[in-house]
Amino acid sequence: MGPSAPPGRSSEQHDRDPQESAHQAPDAQATPSRDPEPGALSAAASSLSTRADGSLDVMSSVGGVRGLLEASLPSAAFLVSFVVSEDLTLSAVLAVVLGAAFTVVRLIQRGPLVQSLSGLAAIVLCAVVAQQTGQARDYYLWGFITNIVYILAFSVSIAVRWPFLGILFGLVRGEGLGWRREPRRRRRYALATWIVTAVLALRLVVQVPLYLGDQLVALGTSRLLMGLPLYGLALWVGWMITRPVAVEGTVGPSAAGSPPDAAHEASHGGEEPRA
Fold first, then answer.
1. Alpha carbon distance 143, 223 (integer Å)
2. Dihedral of the CA atoms 48, 52, 57, 59 (nearest 10)?
3. Residues 102, 119 contacting (CB under 8 angstroms)
4. N or C: which end of the chain has fewer CB within 10 A?
5. Element (H, E) at 172
């Protein structure tokens, strides 16, 4: 089950620390044309919200209470309905109806069209797969496929030194792709991307055996517990360990109070283990 695309960013993210903005502005301006797929990445970046202090607002980034309900309620309704009635068709229809209701509300409120329809499309696909196979557990099969795709994509992005969270967070922070010229920051973004990848892999490790064992209740419950909240936590950890102040803070006290050239040299001189 892939991460949902919550509503737009908070306006608070524009109120950055002046020193941070001054440090990042040249990077953001130096490489605007190198931003791959700017439309798609900008849409993904706009889903992240930050607080006035620059920290990631996880709840807003996952869409708030409504985002959590949209991500979990259709699946929960499918699970409860099937356990109670053992009617696969009824359970699938109920999940689709709830997904459609959320979509209609978003469209009425003029929410993002792609975001509104993609969630509904995923629910419909899950319901169709379950109906075609006649197995309730196959409602969760598409989630395994999307997790594998994300794991492969994130791993490749790290291997080619374009870690996905670096591209995403770079847009949010206004630093563009300037972080790629700093090995320390690039490794931190790679580590953050590995953390999200590990969460996706953990889902498979826990849920695939439950699927193979036909343990529907345990599978559905683990899908809910390891869904958007756990993904949001991984994003928050990734955001915190890649903050410019956190990365530069690993240099040590010798760089503090140094002349600009010396501080710059100190911040790039040390090597740390690759993520």
1. 9
2. -110
3. yes
4. C
5. helix 164-173
Which tens digits make up the pLDDT trace of 98-123? 999 998 988 888 877 777 788 899 99
Residue 236 CA from chain centroid, whole number:
9
Q: Angle at the Cα of 25 (from 189 to 265), degrees rounded to 5? A: 65
Q: Which of 253, 254, 272 is nearest to 186 (CA)?
A: 272
Longest dimension (CA), the chain: 72
Given the structure tokens 């010798």, which residue do they identify? 254
Distance of CA 104 to the CA centre of its chain: 24
| Rounded average pLDDT over 175-198 | 93
Provide φ and ψ at 185, rounded to 5°: -70, -35
AA identity, residue 209: P
Q: Six-digit token pair at 247? A: 């990365």
Structure tokens at 194: 């590995």
111-144 per-residue burial string, b: 16 or more CB within 10 A, e: under 16: bbeebbeebbebbeebbebbbeeeebbbbbebbe
Residues in the chain: 275
Count CB neighbours of 217 within 10 A: 12
One-letter amino acid of 16: R
